[in-house]
Structures are given as C-alpha cells and as structure tokens.
Fold this protein.
Amino acid sequence: MMCTFTPDASQPEIYYDLRLADEALTGNLRVAVKNQAGAITGDIYTRICRPPTVMCGQGSYACDSASPPCISNPAAIDVYQNGAKCVAPGHLSNHVWSLQNPNDIKGGAQITFSGGDPARGGSNGLQRQYVMQFECDWSVNYPQAVSGTESTSASVITYTVVVRTSGACVLQPLPLSAGWISIILMGVSCFVYFVGGSVYNYKVRGEEGLKIIPQWAYWKQLPGHVYEGCIFSYKHGSRALKNAPRDIQDWYKGRNTKELREPIAYTPAAE
C-alpha cells in the first residue's frame, strides 16, 4: 500500500510520509482495545503500511470470522478471549487516506481499512473496519501505540488505534531564511540593474558596445581598485604582523606604570 498521503492535489508540497515510521517497526505495535463501556475486549497487533507479523489461524490464534478462513492480508489482527480467538478488523488493500479534520490540512492524517472479517454470534452480520489515526510528535522516532477503542454502529464495528510518531507530522517547505531572502533580492537587484540599465543606455542614450553597461567607466576601473586594495591590505597586514611581538611586549612592560594604575582624575564641568 502507499505509505504517503497528499491531502490536496493543488498543494503537493504539503504531505504526510509514514514510510520511515513503518520501517522503524521491527515487530508489531500492541494496544489494548476498550469498548464503549471502557472494558478491555482484546489486543490489536498492527504495523502501519504492512500486515502484522502474525495472522489469524496461526498457532493458537483461531479464526473467529463468520466467513472463515480469516482474510490473508490483514491491516491488523484483533486477539481476544485470552488469545484463543482472532479476527482481522480490516483488509490492507482496502485502505483510504483522509484528514482527521477535513478543514485542517495540517491537523493529522488517518487510514481507514475496510473489508475486515465479518462478525458472528451476537454481532452476526456486522462488518468490521479498522481506523489508524496518527499523532504528530517530533521527539518520537519509534512509533508508539497510544490508545485503542472499539465502537459499534448499526452495521459496522470500528476499531480505532492512535499511533504517535514523528513520521505523522505534516511535511511542508520551510520558510525562506533572512539570508536566502537577501541573496534572492541581491540577485534580482543585480539583474534589474545590469539588464535594465543596458537596455536604457542602448535604447535611450544610443550607447553601443561595452558602453551600454551602466556606469561602465566605474566597472572598468574596478579590477585596478581591487588590486590596489589587496596590495594595501597585504603591506599593512605584514607590517602589523611583524611589529606585533614588539608591540605586545611594550604593552606588557608598561601595564603597571603609574599612569595606568592611578584612577582618572575627576574634573567638574565648567559652569
């Protein structure tokens, strides 16, 4: 199944990516499921984008579906009655991504897995579906199962599991920093200056050749100015580096002179 979700096709830069969270799971997430009365009814074993590592009908997990055998590609399994019975609440292939809050693209995603094993006994005829809701927490790299609930409507038994992970956080472009804004503005300014100025000099002032470049007289002198600046910096820097040991030594010798040890005399302002 696809482990990424783009809520709005018109904003493809905003999306959810659960692949790393799913790959981080070396085993199953296990979460106790509570019914509407708050009583624990069983345990859900699940991963995110892959089937659990155990299936109903394996070992002591006897399939309790009204249409046995239990589905072979479950999104999760629900184990109850002390591990004696097992059903798949949803089919991994029958999944639909959606937003937890349709009005908030950044408010969290969820996956609904339908086509689970039908119920029998007192709930005969009811279909099962499994909803996995994701809670964003940048500090949680390994997914954590937060809660599990079971609710029954007129035709569906819904199992809802909340998973907390950093992979559940919405991904979106970071805003430009002040540095990048400055670079972009500088680039745009240079482009407008050179292109706009060249067009103006050519069209309005009738300049030709290199003279169409704005302030060409200055730009052709720039290499010479750069060279002179480098020579000046080199000469004065070399002189300062050469004289630094002597200057430091003179300062060290004179740091305890009478002039430096005595406080500066206070002179009242003239009225």
